[in-house]
Write a structure and sequence with these properties.
By secondary structure, this protein is mainly beta. The chain has two helices and nine strands. The N and C termini lie close together (10 Å).
Amino acid sequence: MRRRAWLLATLMAELWLTGCASPDATGDPSGRSASQETVRWPYWPTSMRIHPLTRLVTDADSGRTFIEARIEFFDRDTHTTKGCGQLRIDLYDLSGVTPRGPLATWEMDLSDPATNLERYDDVTRTYLFTLDTELE
């Protein structure tokens, strides 16, 4: 159990969101505007966190361990918001003196509307990702 808690903590070491351009005031993600002057969309994500509901689960049938990662995005007013772009999650083993490369990497395309909708949970206002890995 201790190893599982430690591995989950290392998940929090590396998380990036890149991709979609910031929409203009019209909500158009291409950044095009009807007027010559483009106004930046004020509710674009400016930060994110791994939500406390993130946890390790073990499938009863196979015995495999999964990480249920819940990712939450915040706008400039620190209110929760949706995200758009490429999401990359790296899992590192930080037990050594010199950190090595990631143990595992997962990439998701949140710029795809179907994937964005499928992964978003209205109740918690987070994105849920089930990360398949052999942690034992």
